[in-house]
Amino acid sequence: MASPHEQSTPPAPRSAPEHEPPEPSRAYLGQLQRDTERRKRELAHHLRDHHGAGPTAQERLEALVDAQSEALVRILHELHRDPETAFQEHRAARRITEHLTRHGVEAQSPAFGLDTAVHAEVSSEDFDPRSHRTIAVMSEYDALPGIGHGCGHNVIAVTGLGAFVALAELLREEPGAFSGRVVYLGTPAEEGEGGKEIMARNGALEGVDAAAMVHPYMTDLTDQVWLGRRQCEVTFHGRASHASSHPFMGRNALDGAVLAYQGLGLLRQQTPPTDRIHAVLPEGGERPNIITESATLRLYVRSQRPETLSALSQRVGEVMEGAALMAGVGVSVAWDTSPATLPVLSNGPLSDRWVLAQQRRGRDPYPAGTLSEVLAASTDFGNVSYRVPGIHPLIGIATEDTGLHSREFAQAAGSPRAERAGLDGAYGLAAVALDYLTDDELAADVAEDFRASGGGISVPDYFD
């Protein structure tokens, strides 16, 4: 039997075990991969019959892309070694501008209200905006904090750049190669900041009839689901009080934030499978003995269509207000502190031309629907694609089990596969642009597909 002294001695505190978090199960990922393999066998392209620019013009265009290969690969690696985050891409913009200048193209940077945006354009001598078309090719070049180019924007940078320069060189060599205009847009701050939307509101798409860019991925895909995304910052307002002596005099803002977070978890049970809600609680009080006076919840909501994104936003707002009511605190909800992004509306006829161009380069992009729509992120190109017809295909630089925004994908963005994708993507964008500018029947089908798919909405006013 223990002595009285021994019984009154408090036990020594036990330290928490130190260990790494367990690895998530890969069972669902494995099922997705098996489903993808099945769809690869079952799905096939059904390409529309358009003549495009013709094989001779495309052969010359391809040579003009490949003539830039050394410079484009160098830029790809320079950006990879020197990542810059949103709105800070000064060196990237300078490298892009220098490449344009070396090829005799006058470039502007800053442009359209952003210090690190780049703008250039070329047009045929007979260009008339009333009768000729304009297409924009786009680059991204911002990196992720702490990870670098874990989304491969260094590859995107050289695809748009190489495509535009090849078209400019083609027009210089053969003034009659096409009638129309090509606009180059270097677009900063795609990662969470909506750089393209800011540029569009400042006139970047004025007079533009279509747009194209390509994104690196784990495989070659003609089209993939991209979700619209809105940001929301919610502040719960309470009353501070001593948490022990006068708790009844306080109103706990942290309670409101926690109830809201739990409410989002319950809401997920009633949302469509492709809807997404992610939240963090960056501010929840200073000390445990003070009832929290202010707490902040930051969240993203995503959905597959503009109208379902609007509906999800309304439900999330109701959860925030309900949580505040339950906790007896005030609440303020601020939507779109950075511009909202819409889903990507991919244009079918332009996508067909992309497939043919990639097949010329020895690639064979899988049809839309090959990859599960569960694997869906967001991009501000969606805002472009609802203003004008556009494409945002994917080009493989990594193995199929590599996720975006990972260190593994960042490593792949500096690999030989990324180099090849940069050149193949540049040719693909240039080829699509040339086909669009030279084939009137294709252009008419592009416009009809855009109209029939719901394009042409007023992006800035949509969620008002």
UniProtKB/TrEMBL annotation:
Which residue ranges does the record annotate as region Disordered? 1-56
Lineage top rank: taxon: Bacteria
Question: Which Pfam families does this UniProt record tie to the protein?
Answer: M20_dimer, Peptidase_M20
Signal peptide range equals none
* UniProt-listed InterPro entries: Amidohydrolase, Bact_exopeptidase_dim_dom, Peptidase_M20, Peptidase_M20/M20A_hydrolases, Peptidase_M20_dimer, Xaa-Arg_dipeptidase
Compositionally biased intervals (Basic and acidic residues)? 34-52
Q: A Gene Ontology biological process annotation?
A: folic acid catabolic process
The record's GO CC annotations read: cytoplasm
GO molecular function list: dipeptidase activity; para-aminobenzoyl-glutamate hydrolase activity
Which positions fall inside the Peptidase M20 dimerisation domain?
229-321
**Does the entry feature the keyword Ribosomal protein, yes or no?**
no
The record's keywords, sorted A to Z, are: Hydrolase
NCBIfam families membership? amidohydrolases (TIGR01891)
Family annotation (PANTHER family): PEPTIDASE M20, XAA-ARG DIPEPTIDASE
Task: Give the protein name, as stated in the record.
Answer: Putative amidohydrolase
Q: What is the lineage of its organism?
A: Bacteria, Bacillati, Actinomycetota, Actinomycetes, Micrococcales
